[in-house]
Prior knowledge:
Largest sheet: 5 strands, antiparallel
Number of domains: 2
Structural class: alpha+beta
Number of strands: 8
Radius of gyration: 50 Å
Amino acid sequence: MDPEKHLALELALDNRLRVDLDALAVRPYAYYKEAALKRAAGPGPVGRLFSFVRVGATILVVVVGVAAALVVAFVLRESRGLPGATSSPSMSISPTPAAGPAGAITGRLEYPAEGIPPLTVYAISTTDQRVWYSVDVPRFPNPSGTPPPPGTFAPGTEPRYTITGVAPGTYYVLAYRNDGQTLYPGGYTQAAVSCRGPQPAPPPPACNDHSLVPVTVTTGQIVSGIDVTDWVVQPPPSIPPRPAPR
């Protein structure tokens, strides 16, 4: 018998039994066979469309969830500074010379008067006037009571200065009075280098050169013999101005 006719016959029989006998619905073999035939035939066009939509929606939800989890993890790692976090370093401009063990500058002090007033001796960078180091020197009395000629201090009693903690670099060395007098500073100049001690009259031409001599400090070096004895140094702008107190 044709399968479709056989199925129709079984359905008609089932209906008759339910009507005539008032029986519970029974799923005959034909019912299960019909369902099997439908499953074998596969879903129709509308069913296939809905299937694709469900699959696409599922994939989209999974992708969005993974992306959200990655974003949250990255934000937490950045905010807590966990290993692997990166950040842009803050930048600052500093006038400090190249890093390295500090050096020192030392030398004698002279002043063309009785004794030496209280002074501050500065080492000012030749390339950046914002970089400087200093030391305060107290008043130096002269026991004889008369103005000492240049270079006549007894060894061991002459006033000296030492500027420590000087970073490697090149500096001008100047001394300013700290007693309220606004006179020209003293400095380490060509005259201080060439005209040490008593000079004949007239003095040699080198004694008239009052230009500052650069002093170079290398890593960990103590530069000695930087005598501040020339008080005919010209004021700014010929020389660096007195640094403002920090």
